[in-house]
Amino acid sequence: MKIVIIGGDAAGMSAAAKAKRVDKDAQVVVYEKTDIVSFGACGLPYFVGDFFDDPNNMVARTADKTRESGIDIKLLYEAVQVDVPKKLLTLKNLTTGEELVDSYDKLMIATGATPIIPPIQNVELKNVFTLKSIYDGIDLKQAALLKDNKEVVIIGAGFIGLELVEAMLKLGKKVRLIQLDSRILPEAFDQEITDIMEKELRDQGVQLQLVEKVLAFQGKTTVTDVVTDKGTYKADIVILATGIRPSTVFLRDTGMTLLRNGAIVINEFGETNLKDVYAAGDCATVYHLIREENVYIPLATTANKLGRIVGGNLVGQKTAFQGTLGSAAVKVLDLEAGKTGLSEGEAQKMGLNFKTVFIKDQNQTGYYPGQADIAVKLIYEAETQVLLGGQVIGKKGAVLRVDVLAAAIFKKMTTQELGMLDLCYSPPFSKAWDVLNVAGNNAG
Predict the structure, then answer these.
(1) Dist CA 325 CA 398 (whole Å)
(2) What is the DSSP letter of 137?
(3) Can you name the residues that pair with 331 across neighbouring β-strands?
(4) Catalytic residue among 22, 29, 42, 329
């Protein structure tokens, strides 16, 4: 059997490795658009911020090492067209420009996503960057390390935008963060949490500008200023962190079911609506356990898990993905924050009968060095008090507590059960009543 996988990052390579382990006789071919496979883009902001030097640290396994396991990797090939009835794939050799046609028995789409470029005038000026590929990171880091590039404007206050704030402050830059929405991370966190994040940014000197639209960049060849609907600001470097969209344009004539943004709709086995065609990763949807629908949440953790499941299913297994809670975390300068399950905004959109509780406490005892504020928000069903979502923000230990909430939500625990959950206690780590216990006990 011949398996062809388009895309050689988290989902694609997880699938290839799993398929080859399960069926050593299967022919597994991976086509990758770049010259690198198994690249972890999550490390890019920290590479740019000079937390580490070698970009190869973000590559989990080289193409040559993967070939040793019997997987045929072909680099610098871009998928152009899929003929599903004939099981044929047209690809463009990005080195020669020539096209070739390959056949498959089973096909997996793992093409990831590409940065969204807003309709901003003069976006092609030098020193205007996006951050998705390893080469984006190298180029941005080279510019950021130049001492003359002092003023950095980051457009978009999502996860990547916030991580880049820390990176640029570490390099001694003056940072301006412009967000179109009325608050940062509006889709991920509720306002009680983002208010704390925004205060942290401002307290550390970040020029945070909300409800502001970028219209144009100025400069002859290199950007010098950013023009918005509220003012003009000097900029030596501009970073567009305005989101991503699935890389699925080449599939639009195949009859494949896609979301409005182009994400491939898959079932619990990673199958698309087309026979023998699978998908996973940042180009595809995932099933949300609480929302009970396919959603677009591009996360590396989910990509690896679904890739592994698809890999087994490509060679005859029938393993289902148990679903996602959208668990995610972000470091905002000296704070860390995480969320899992539904936000209050999502619960409202779903029309659920729910309640919330928001508490502030401390992460550990006061007599051991390191005590800091920590805040927890719980979203839960009003009648049953079954947990639906949770968010935590603080310093040391905040994000790891979200893992407890994820397990509790997955097992449909109630707030009362969370309040009495047997969590670890020792003065350096928590108080006798951990903040999660306190939050559960305060839910009414």
Answers:
(1) 18
(2) H
(3) 336
(4) 42
